[in-house]
Specification:
Length: 468
Amino acid sequence: MAYSPQPTAYGGLPENQRISQNSADQYLFNWNAVWTAGLVNDYRIQFNKYSNYYKPTPEAVAQGYPSTSIRQSNIRFGIDDNSPQSTLLGRLEMHDNMAQQKGRHGLKYGASFERDRARGSWQYRYPASMTLYSPAEARAAGIPIPAAFRTREDLLQLPLRSFQFGVGNPEQPPFHPERSRINHRVRFYFGDNWKLRPNLTINLALSYSFEDNLVNADLPKPSSLSKILNGAVAPTRRDFNNLAPRFGFAWTPGKGTKTSIRGGYGIYYDTLLLNVRLVERTYLAPYGVGYAGLNQSYVPNPLNPRQTLDVLLQGPTPIRGADLVRLLPSIRGPLEQQFSKSQSNEDLSVTNLDAFHSGAAILDPSLTTPYSMHYTLGVQRELPHGILLSADGEFKQSVHEIFSADYNKFRRVAAPSIPITARPDSTRWPSTRRAPRRATRRCWCGPRSGTRAATSSSLPTRWRRLWA
């Protein structure tokens, strides 16, 4: 178990850190059996448990200031905005492998089963995080500020530029956690190492793998994403066709045994991190379910109720950081009550993404499990005096690489930006006066591919005798 403060890499004041507490346990059992002279069984079962907790420092909690940064500087103070959070993972793995020799065939076959259970909490932007204009920007705008900054209270006299805050239930995963916290991974394989001729060996293998809860297959995409997803608003599909063939050979041409040529090809599948779908699950859940990050665009301007505080982004105003600290309880209170009442909401016609007009880590409906294709070819020659000369080449092509993209930027629909969807019921939204603006729709997709090529050569010496 590890328990230590986790310092930040920027100019944060001492309290703007988090305490990290980690523990890991693992249990393993292995059983080998020789059934016959040509049949061996290897069975393994293991369980590991991992827990991680992030907590704000007691000094930051006692001071009570939100996480605060200042433009044109590296100063940051207040409660760390990425804590408290926790990650609790449990994994059970079972593998059963058989090796059998039948004449010229060396058979290998088996199966594996894995059960992952993930849960935790993530209370980010709590109670808030804010950015203040720099002293130079405030003076240029004619805003009076202290002549010198000796305390945190002096810094909070700077004009407020933006802020974010989180509300709701931070427990993960959100919305029907009983069906979304467990993922099963199964794999079957069969291989044959076939000595076709005395100078030629061929290796053939095929495996199949499948994961039943890697994506949110129970949650459709909101209709507001129909245009940028080309009408594909069905839940992200489960990928059933993860077949992985492999082929290899080793050949010694001619009657001599001094030269050997070997090569191979194989497909290897990757997976997704479990926490990727947890972020999407919050946005696709019914409005008010889970934990949501909001910003100044949901809060009316106290100096002009017809506007939201998005006006802060236009330049310094008389609204200061200290004003946000004072007003934060009245901003958070009604929303916390509203989200508390909405945790049992089952109506998917209005989702959190619809309500907040933004989303991140949305999984593309056609997302495909990433995999890579490997090609190898090599030659080895035995030279006089026990010297071996080897030359090998490798080529790798990855397919369906996972990456994040803003679909509003890359899939515009007859306009520079996609307009905000009208609110079906203004009484259900955090702010009825939010100014329309371009919404961010960051999605995880997998159409990208990449290649990698490498060559290597070696000239090791194989001594047949230690000394003459």
